[in-house]
Amino acid sequence: MKSKKLVIFGAGETADIAYEYFTHDSNYEIVGFTVEAHYLKDTELHGLPVISFDEMETKFPPSTVEVFVAISYTKLNRIRARCYNMVKKKNYRCATYISSRAFVWHNAQIGENCMIFENNVIQHKVQIGNGVILWSGNHIGHQTRIEDFVYISSHVVISGFCTIGSFSFLGVNSTFNDNISLGKDNIVGSGALIVKNSGDGKLMIGSPARPADKSSYEAFGVKKEEIY
User: Could you give all domains of the chain from N- to C-terminal order, each with its CATH number?
Assistant: First the structure.
């Protein structure tokens, strides 16, 4: 029984995936999509209306729907954060999706506009902020804190008592020892082994991982001037 109505912010691949998961594994009924006006190309997706965000309050008032901002890690998660803040300024509540096939311990705390896919393990007293995406198959150890707008790809192991700084991206199969503090705006390469704390704005690669230079950071498609 679908007891809530949801509008998805976005019309790309992440929005398509969000539509699939919310439709088949949640109590949300998808009633439409919204995008910023300059991205409005098609007026229908999955048989539902796609409207400009400028029209949201008229077509879907905040009292009638929740919103999920379905945007990937573009510009190191800044686009998702900006759109989330636009939605909140219009007084919408943002939905969180947690797969029925994820394991979430009862005292874990999970914020708004998160998407937690299948086979994630979220342990005792984990704290997850707003706008966090955990793709499939990750382990988040006890009392670890994931700050806002982090993107965790797949098969990442984060041990206990870690802190993952806001806006960071964690590549597939990366591993964190206990008690690691990762600064904000970090990119952690695939297969990296994090054994030491990092500052902000680092690209961490290798096993054990070390910070790479700025040119390597930009090789990931991120320009620091776009972030800072």
Answer: 4-89 (3.40.50.20), 97-207 (2.160.10.10)
Q: Which residues of 198-214 are buried (b: 16+ CB within 10 A; e: fewer)?
A: beebbbbbeeebebbee
C-alpha span between 173 and 209 (Å, rounded)? 13
The pLDDT tens digits along the chain (228 residues) read 789 999 999 999 999 999 999 999 999 999 999 999 999 999 999 999 999 999 999 999 999 999 999 999 999 999 999 999 999 999 999 999 999 999 999 999 999 999 999 999 999 999 999 999 999 999 999 999 999 999 999 999 999 999 999 999 999 999 999 999 999 999 999 999 999 999 999 999 999 999 987 656 665 566 655 554
Cα separation of 55 and 57, whole Å?
A: 6
User: How many Cα neighbours within 13 Å face the side chain of 58?
Assistant: 5
Alpha carbon 167 to chain centroid, angstroms:
9
This prediction's pTM: 0.94
CA–CA dist 158, 194 (Å, integer):
9
Query: What's at 80, amino acid-wise?
Result: R
Which element (helix H / strand E) includes 55?
Answer: none
